[in-house]
Amino acid sequence: MLYNSTRNKNLKLPASLAILKGLSDDGGLFVPEEIPVFDKSLDELKDLNYRELAYEIMKLYFDDFTEDELKGCIASAYDDKFDTDEIAPLTYAGKVYYLELFHGKTIAFKDMALSILPHLMTVSAKKNDIKEEIVILTATSGDTGKAALAGFADVPGTRIMVFYPKDGVSPVQKLQMVTQTGDNTRVVAVNGNFDDCQTAVKAIFNDSGFASEIKEKGFCFSSANSINIGRLIPQIVYYVYAYCRLLRDGRINANDRINICVPTGNFGNILAAYYAKRMGLPVNRLICASNENKVLFDFLKSGIYDRNRPFILTCSPSMDILISSNLERLIYHLAGDDDEKCAGFMKELASGGRYEIDETMKEGLSDFLEGFATEEQTLSEIRRLYDDTGYVIDTHTAVASFVYNSLKDTLTGEETVVASTASPFKFAKSVMTALSEDASKKDDMTLIDELSSISNVEVPAAIKEIKNAPIRHKIEAEKDGIKKAVTDFLS
Ligand SMILES: *Cc1c(COP(=O)(O)O)cnc(C)c1O
Which pLDDT value is given to residue 97? Predict the structure, then answer.
């Protein structure tokens, strides 16, 4: 299995090199030459545990890893860092299954991929005889940053640097990042929004002069952002796992088609579900749920992607995104794996902030269904579900839950799985605003304790840890100062 760039099909790299590079030199994203199909039936897969299933999926994509190497990566990733051996448990509430992707170290779904990426990278470096220290640069809208820091902290042969929008993350997210330990970590607050951070980091990756400069100092850049194929592929696993659990538990019958509803920002999580469907998972609709930054909703409705609009700060900050990077992979596949066509659209996006796909490509969008939730709808959904069932979801999950409920009468398909992407404790202020009268007057830690008592769920270790931890990262930068911050870190 080789990987092409979405902007250059002549480029063909094995998985290990695609993982190390993160982004292709032409600005494109790595995609498998062909999306593989399952080589075992779901009936055979349904009794496997999470690690065993992860191997069955990932071996189809990362075929230049030996069995021992890949199983080693999986064992190091999905261990007791997760607070349940199930890794990604399903909870049934309000007639829908919530796939809880927040049982890892930082209590959000990015742990699912970022627990394994450092191991995939260090094995990839060894395989390719790479001597330079790997420097991870990451722009974050909140959750990626901490999950990447936690994944890479003190991993030998790596350094990690994270940029976050100074006023665009929740207080808990911020505290989680600035208290990060590990001598190889650095966290920088940027005066700008997430897109500013991401654009600056992308520019550094595309700056070949800078790359050779740091190579002389013994470093090479890589990306832990959701554009890395080493993050996308591990995310396929939990959708297959959810299906297998439903099958094993007799909630669905063989070949029943499920719907999957995903709170979407950068389009990584839902793209993994799309790959799962292409691999043969019986999926009816992939429901793309947006918050008020509904650029993807408009795109899926009209075939026009247009980022020229105000950027809105919402209570689901990890979805506050106007340029959904991973959508490029879908565009490439919709165009029939046409690199030139894809590159053309991305050029239009870079220059005018807008492109429109053609009629044939629009037909390919029928796998998807789209919806969005306003701020008010998001909070009222948290309240509704709690009143009906006692189950508390976070703001991101609530966006998806609301969208599913607003569309459910139009849906066929047997059951629906909603991706639950963060623990409500991570966004306690917004969640408690939805559930009680006077939350705005209280501090986060008080609200976390109140949330614990009304939901009957213990405060997660990830939160307990940061309560008294010292602040270790105080650096700030302007958006045009990001490159200099990198130079400082490497000198
Ligand atoms: C990152 C994130 C999302 C969005 O996922 P994408 O893969 O970027 O679409 C949704 N919810 C939470 C909590 C996240 O951290």
Answer: 98
Write out pLDDT tens, residues 14-29. Answer: 999 999 988 898 989 9
Phi, psi of 78 (to 5 degrees): -100, 70
Are 395 and 316 in contact by the 8 Å Cβ rule? The answer is yes
Q: Over pLDDT 70: what percentage of the chain? A: 100
If one counts every other C-beta atom within 10 angstroms of the C-beta of residue 380, the result is 15
Q: Please give the Cα distance from 323 to 295 (Å, whole number).
A: 8
Phi, psi of 170 (to 5 degrees): -75, 160
Residue 349 CA, ligand 1 centroid: distance in Å:
22
Q: Rounded to the nearest whole angstrom, what is the distance from the C-alpha of residue 263 to the centroid of ligand 1?
A: 7
- For tokens 């939990």, the residue is 238
* Nearest atom, ligand 1, residue 142 CA: 15
Cβ contact 333:306 at 8 Å: no
Q: Which ligand 1 atom is nearest residue 141's CA?
A: 1
The Cα–Cα gap between 318 and 313 comes to 10
Q: Does the reported pTM lie above 0.85?
A: yes
